Automatic annotation (TrEMBL):
Keywords: Amino-acid transport, Membrane, Transmembrane, Transmembrane helix, Transport. Coiled coil: none annotated. GO terms for biological process: amino acid transport. It is found in: Membrane. Pfam families: Aa_trans (PF01490). InterPro entries: AA_transpt_TM. GO terms for cellular component: membrane. This is Amino acid transporter transmembrane domain-containing protein.
Length: 452
C-alpha cells in the first residue's frame, strides 16, 4: 500500500464528438419523469397534455442554448471556461446570487437522488409483484415492502459513487442511455398493444374528471411539475459541456447535442404519455411500468423494470457527481494540510486490474450522502408528488432565471430593447408555471403523507 497526494484538477476529456455528450443528456433527462407521463397527460387531457410536453421541450431547448453560450466568459467562444453551472453564475452575477444558486442547485441534485431511490425501489418491487401475479393470478395480494429495495440500491450506489469524477463515467452514461431507450420502447409497445386490444382510444379532451374544479386544478398543476422535472437537465449542462474541447466551439457542439437529445426524449415522452393515456384513460397509472396496468407478458415487464434499475444506477451518478465535486473541493480548501482530506492510498490489485486508489474523505463523504438520500426516500416514498415538487423547484430558478440573467449580462443587453422584453416575458411566464406547480405538488405531498 502506497500513499500519494491528490491532484484536484481534473483534466479535460479530449473529445469533440457530440454523441457522448448526447448520451450524458439522455441519461439525465430520460429517467423517472418518462414513467409518469401517462398520468400527467391523463390529468391534462388530449389537448393540454401533448401541448404541454411540446411547450416544455421548446422552453428547455431555448434555455439550454442560452446556458451553453455562458460556458465561456466574457466571450462565448474565446473566453475563460466556466467549468460548472455555479462558476458561470459567480462570474456573471456575483456573490449573492452564487450563494442562492449553489444552495438551490445542490438541493435539486439531492432531491433528484431521492427520487431515483424511490423509482428504483418501485421497479425492484414491481418485478417481484409481476412474478407473483403470473403465478397466483391478478387478484392475488402480492404485497411487498419498499425499504429492503431502497437499501439494496443505496449499497450499490455507495460502490458506484467511488467513480472519481464526471469525466470518468462516460461508459456508465452510454449503458444507462441504452437502458432508457429499451424500457421506453417497451412501455410504448405495451401501451400500443393495449390500445389495439381495447379496440378504441380512451381518454378525453379535459382529462380525468374530478369531484371539484379545485381538485382538478391541483392535479393538473402537479402534472405540469412532473413534466418540468422530466426536462430538468439544465443544472448539469455546463458540467457536461466541460467534457468537450475546441475547436469546434463548445457552445455550438453543445447546442447540437441538446437539440438531438431533446428531440429524442420528447418523441419518447409523447409516445409513452399519449399511448399510455390512450390505453388506460382515466385509470392511467402514476408509473407506467410499475402501476400494473400491464400484467403480461410478465417476463417483458420484468425486463423493462430491470432496464429502469440499470439506467437509474447511472442517472443517480449523473446528478450526484457535481455534489461530490463541490463538497470535496470545499474540504480541500478548508483543510489543505489534512491527510484525511488530501491523501490517496493505493492498493495493488490482482493483474490485470488497475491499482485501487482510496481517499478517506471520498469514501466517507460519498457514503454519507448516499445513505442520507436513501433515508429520506424511505420517509417520503411518493413518486408523483416528489417529482412535482422537484420539477417546480428546478424549472424557473435554475432552468430559466439564471440562464436568462447570465445571457443578458454576458451579451450586455440593454433594458427595454426588443430582446430584453422577449427574455423578460419568457422568464415571467415560466415563473408563473413554477409557482402554481410548486404549490400544487407540495399540497399533494402533504396529502399523501397525512393519508398514509
Amino acid at each position: 500500500m502506497g500513499e500519494e497526494s491528490v491532484d484536484h484538477e481534473t483534466p479535460l476529456l479530449h473529445s469533440d464528438i457530440s454523441p457522448k455528450r448526447t448520451a450524458h443528456i439522455i441519461t439525465a433527462v430520460i429517467g423517472s419523469g418518462v414513467l409518469s407521463f401517462a398520468w400527467s397527460v391523463a390529468q391534462l387531457g388530449w389537448i393540454a397534455g401533448p401541448a404541454s410536453v411540446i411547450c416544455f421541450a421548446i422552453i428547455t431547448y431555448v434555455s439550454s442554448s442560452l446556458l451553453a453560450d455562458c460556458f465561456r466568459s466574457p466571450d462565448p467562444i474565446n473566453g475563460t471556461r466556466n467549468r460548472s453551472y455555479i462558476d458561470a453564475v459567480r462570474v456573471n452575477l456575483g456573490r449573492t446570487q452564487t450563494l442562492f444558486c449553489g444552495l438551490l442547485q445542490n438541493l435539486l441534485f439531492y432531491g433528484t437522488g431521492v427520487a431515483y431511490v424511490i423509482t428504483t425501489s418501485t421497479s425492484m418491487r414491481a418485478i417481484q409483484r409481476s412474478n407473483c401475479y403470473h403465478r397466483e393470478g391478478h387478484e392475488a395480494p402480492c404485497s411487498y415492502g419498499e425499504t429492503i429495495y431502497m437499501l439494496i440500491f443505496g449499497l450499490v450506489q455507495i460502490l458506484i459513487s467511488q467513480i472519481p469524477d464526471f469525466h470518468s463515467m462516460e461508459w456508465l452514461s452510454i449503458v444507462a442511455s441504452i437502458m432508457s431507450f429499451t424500457y421506453c420502447f417497451i412501455g410504448f409497445g405495451l401501451s400500443f398493444a393495449k390500445v389495439i386490444e381495447n379496440g378504441r382510444i380512451k381518454g378525453s379532451i379535459t382529462g380525468v374528471p374530478e369531484a371539484s374544479i379545485a381538485d382538478k386544478l391541483w392535479l393538473a398543476f402537479q402534472a405540469l411539475g412532473d413534466i418540468a422535472f422530466a426536462y430538468g437537465y439544465g443544472i448539469i449542462l455546463l458540467e457536461i459541456q466541460d467534457t468537450l474541447k475546441s475547436p469546434p466551439p463548445e457552445n455550438k457542439v453543445m447546442k447540437k447535442a441538446s437539440m438531438a437529445a431533446i428531440f429524442i426524449t420528447t418523441f419518447f415522452y409523447l409516445c409513452c404519455g399519449c399511448f399510455g393515456y390512450a390505453a388506460f384513460g382515466s385509470l392511467a397509472p402514476g408509473n407506467l411500468l410499475t402501476g400494473f396496468g400491464f400484467y403480461e407478458p410478465y417476463w417483458l415487464i420484468d425486463f423493462a423494470n430491470a432496464c429502469i434499475i440499470l439506467h437509474l444506477v447511472g442517472a443517480y451518478q449523473i446528478y450526484s457527481q457535481p455534489v461530490f465535486a463541490f463538497g470535496e473541493r470545499w474540504f480541500t480548501k478548508k483543510f489543505p494540510t489534512s491527510r484525511f482530506v488530501n491523501n490517496f492510498y493505493t492498493f495493488k490489485n490482482i493483474p490485470p486490474l488497475p491499482p485501487l486508489k482510496i481517499n478517506l474523505l471520498r469514501v466517507c463523504f460519498r457514503t454519507a450522502y448516499v445513505a442520507s438520500t436513501t433515508a429520506v426516500a424511505m420517509i417520503f416514498p411518493y413518486f408523483n408528488d416528489v417529482l412535482g415538487v422537484l420539477g417546480a423547484l428546478n424549472f424557473w430558478p435554475l432552468a430559466i432565471y439564471f440562464p436568462v440573467e447570465m445571457y443578458m449580462v454576458q451579451n450586455k443587453i440593454e433594458n427595454w430593447t426588443r430582446k430584453w422584453i422577449v427574455l423578460r416575458i419568457f422568464s415571467l411566464f415560466c415563473f408563473l408555471v413554477t409557482i402554481i406547480s410548486l404549490v400544487a405538488s407540495i399540497e399533494g405531498l402533504i396529502s399523501a403523507k397525512s393519508s398514509s
